[in-house]
Amino acid sequence: MTVEKIERIRRLLTAALAPVELDVIDEGHKHAGHTGEGKGHFFARIVSRAFAGKNPIQRHRMVYDALAEMMPDGIHALSIEAKAPGE
């Protein structure tokens, strides 16, 4: 199930932000015993030209907007590293 979620995250981020670099990692193992355990804890590192000129909050909002359909059920927690090329 986690592999499918990772692939879906990758597809959504690619479609919305055309990243030049993208890593999505399952971090569920870091949340054992947490109330959201098993609901999807992920780390996304994304480098996209779409982030140029945007501050960190704007970048995170862009990522959350791209993944909106997964937020209610597929993603419980998401850590984001969002950069423009060259940063």
Class from secondary-structure proportions: alpha+beta
Query: How much helix is in the residues?
Result: 25-40%
Per CATH, the class reads Alpha Beta
Question: Rounded to an integer, what's the Rg over CA atoms?
Answer: 13 Å
State the CATH architecture: 2-Layer Sandwich
How far apart lie the N and C ends? 33 Å
What is CATH's topology name? Answer: GMP Synthetase, Chain A, domain 3
H-E order: HEEHE
The total domain count is 1
Strand order of the largest sheet: 1-2-3
CATH evolutionary superfamily: BolA-like
Could you describe the largest sheet, including whether it forms a barrel? 3 strands, mixed
Please tell me what the overall shape is.
Answer: globular
Mean pLDDT: 89
Number of helices: 2
Low-confidence stretches: none
The proportion of residues in beta strands is 15-25%
Count the E strands: 3
